[in-house]
Amino acid sequence: MTIFAALAAGMMLGACSDEIEMRYPPKYELPELPEVEGIHAYKAPLYWSVYEYCYEQEQNGVANSDMDISPDEWDKIIDWVATELKPYGYDMVCTDGFIPMLANDASGYMTHYGSMSLKDLVAKCKAKGLKVGVYDNPLWLHGPNETKIEGTDYTFGQLYYNHSQTIMNPSAENMWFNWAVAENPGTREYIDGFFKHYSELGIDYIRMDFLSWYEDGKDRNIGIVGHGYGRESYARALSYIAESAKKYGIFTSLVMPHMYNNAEVEAKYGNMVRIVADTAGGGWWHCSGHDKGKSYATWPNCMNMFDGFTFWSGISGRDKVILDGDFIRLNKFETDAEKETVVSLQLMAGGPVTVADQYYTIGNDVRFYTNTEMLELNTDRFVGKPLSDKLGDRDNEIWFGQMSCGDYVVGLFNRDDSPRAYSLDLQQLGISGEWKQRDLWLHADEGVSSTINATVAPHGCKIVRLSK
Asked: CB under 8 Å to 17, separation ≥6 — which residues?
């Protein structure tokens, strides 16, 4: 189900243009769509993903159709997550693409991830006090055309593009995915059935990918990838997804969106939204180095985590959409300072911490994921902001925000290859007076002051909690 190899090939050959033209104006006025209240009450999830295992399999030449995880291997993974990570709040394991997503019953919805029944996976995780998240998309059709949508007379075949609808790329064929079109009768019921199916299985989280391919059928690195059903269809689809996800209590993560018009649709209808290119090989390159200081009009808008969180910081906040910096592979970072930075960045921005390291690749790095003083930010639903949201401004390496108890947290980051000295007057952040200072990585009190003085290591950070 994945196309990472194709994406990588496209990037090596060179991107098309930095900007892919839209056929609708940037300020396209959407019709009135359903309001879905109360969907931004979640904190960012802490969880483990199968991503690294699958990505490395693909890099080693294993075909997606041949990938699988045995029940014994799942047991090892679940035991490790439950023992090493769950005590610190990491309460879920999640599938990804790569491994075949199979619909093995009459419902037409996904029932197996490779050879593993999702029902059995949920039971294994539940026995260890863990939840399960699934990589799937409510607009993907897995079953045969004659499959009936429960409670209706509609079939899967009636949900496809019917050649009478206006699409953005009439001569194109869809790559990889069979899409249900939002305007077609039955699609709303199909989406509701999707979430009902997963709710009954005990799934708590859906990670839905390739949304940009549905909206306009274009990919910045490949070109035309599908029909493109348009802005209105895309917005309508996300509204149906949001209402059913809320109805069944399932958290939604929106992946690969173009985020047009300052993410007006994604911020309205998603619990969480990806704001950066795929992790791939990970390390400092994905955290900070890749196309540093650049942004693009289409997916992926930013190529590294730091720029993504900075660029999109204006749409996040308590009771707003959560920004997702994608997976972390700590074993691909070179220094402890880098490992502290990548975890700190997610938590300072109010994002998830998604462990992609495997139990056999993590080494001694679990300690970076399990800093309880840093993880208090996640529990508090803290969301910080950069001092500047301009990608070329060094002030975007200063992050700060206020916890619900009134304490402030300030993050000083250094993206340079050499040490950086800071002498930060708290008044620059609008914080007056003297405050008790505590370094959350050193676990050390550092006195009372109205300034923060520090020399930050290359690729490192200093995270300070200020309290009265």
From this structure: none
**d(C-alpha 295, C-alpha 311), whole Å:** 8
CB 89 within 8 A of CB 375: yes
Contact yes or no for 271/246 (Cβ under 8 A): no
Pairing status of strand 420-425 against strand 435-439: unpaired
Q: How far apart are CA 69 and CA 78, in angstroms?
A: 12
b/e 437-459 (16+ beta carbons within 10 angstroms → b): bbbbbeeeeeeeeeebebebbeb
What CATH class is the domain 401-467?
mainly beta
Mean pLDDT by 10 residues, the chain (468 residues): 37 35 50 87 97 97 96 98 98 97 96 98 98 98 96 96 92 94 96 98 98 96 94 96 98 97 96 98 98 95 98 97 98 98 98 98 98 98 98 96 98 98 98 98 98 98 98
Run of H or E residues at 311: helix 305-311
Give yes or no on whether 33-383 and 401-467 have one common fold.
Answer: no
CA–CA dist 275, 346 (Å, integer): 12
Separation between Cα atoms, residue 308 and residue 288, nearest integer Å: 10
Ordered by start, the domain boundaries in the chain are 33-383, 401-467
pLDDT value for 25: 43
**Measuring CA to CA, which residue among 264, 260, 138 is closest to residue 209?**
138
DSSP 110-176: --EETTEEHHHHHHHHHHTT-EEEEE--TTB--S-TTPBPTTSS-BGGGGS--SSS--S-TT----S
Grouping H, G, I as helix, E, B as strand and the rest as coil, residue 429 is: helix
C-alpha–C-alpha distance, residues 148 and 189, integer Å: 11
Exposed, middle or buried, 333 (CB in 10 Å: 0-12/13-18/19+)?
A: buried
Q: Rounded to whole angstroms, what are the CA distances from 452 to 291, 414, 433, 449?
A: 30, 15, 12, 7
Note whether 227 and 161 are within 8 A (CB).
yes
Q: Is 254:266 a contact under the CB 8 Å cutoff? A: yes
The one-letter code for the residue type at 354 is T
pLDDT value at position 164?
Answer: 86
What pLDDT does 29 receive? 63
CA distance 116 to 132: 13
Nearest alpha-carbon partner for 258 in 2, 20, 4, 3? 20
Superfamily of domain 33-383 in the CATH hierarchy: Aldolase class I (3.20.20.70)
pTM for the model stands at 0.93
